[in-house]
Amino acid sequence: MKLYNYFRSSASFRVRIALQLKGLAYDYLPVHLAKGEQKQADFAAVTAEGLVPVLQLDDGRRLMQSMAIIEYLDETHPQPALLPADPVGRARVRALAQIVACEIHPLNNLRVLKYLVHDLKASDDAKNAWYKHWVRLGLLSYEARLAEQPGTYSHGDTPTLADCCLVPQIFNAQRFDCDLSGLPRTMAAFDACMKLDAFQKAAPDACPDAE
């Protein structure tokens, strides 16, 4: 398999975590978003959306969207499972993952931040305030959900799809100096994940294109 991704992309980071947890080998193909490589013709031939990650399978077919890619990996390589066996557990894990992937991330990804600055003429201070506001709001929701049920990780005592989403978001929150106080369960789940080789090997600073 081949993974088109960017070392700082949280969506790419999610997929790298899943691949590492599954023990799946892949070729790392960097697409530098900050330099605009996603807009170049060779990547446009890979995906019309101009977004990462893209997972190219051994037969040449390509999968887009991190959540869809991770669920594909979980269905085709079921162990270790990233979704619980029970329907309620699966719904809870998907809901936690979507707090990050559907509520926090879309408001704060690189193209949105660039639009705020370049098109809407927001100042850097305003952009950073925007980023921190939505991260804080989303993580408070995440914390409230974790408080409902004990566990080492976001759901139970093994990493799940939710952790694949949480860890990259915390990395970005730390990079942007967001307020992470008052999130004891969330940060405990993050710390537990970062003790595992799979999360360490998938981290941005472990990527070949890290700067």
Radius of gyration: 17 Å
What is the overall pLDDT average? 96
Largest sheet: 4 strands, mixed
User: How many individual β-strands?
Assistant: 4
User: Approximately what portion of the residues adopt beta-strand conformation?
Assistant: 5-15%
Find the CATH topology of the largest domain: Glutathione S-transferase Yfyf (Class Pi), Chain A, domain 2
Low-confidence stretches: none
Structural class: alpha+beta
Distance between termini? 24 Å
Task: Name the overall outline.
Answer: globular
What topology, given as strand order, has the largest sheet? 2-1-3-4
- Give the second-level CATH assignment, the architecture of the largest domain: Up-down Bundle
Order of helices and strands: EHEHEEHHHHHHH
Describe what this molecule looks like in 3D.
There is one protein chain. With 211 residues, this protein is α+β, with helices and mostly antiparallel strands. The protein is built from nine helices and four strands, in the order βαβαββααααααα. The chain folds into two domains: 2-80, Glutaredoxin, CATH 3.40.30.10; 87-198, Glutathione S-transferase Yfyf (Class Pi), Chain A, domain 2, CATH 1.20.1050.10. Helices cover 54% and strands 7% of the residues. It has a four-stranded mixed sheet with strand order 2-1-3-4, covered by helices on one side. The longest helix has 23 residues, at 124-146.
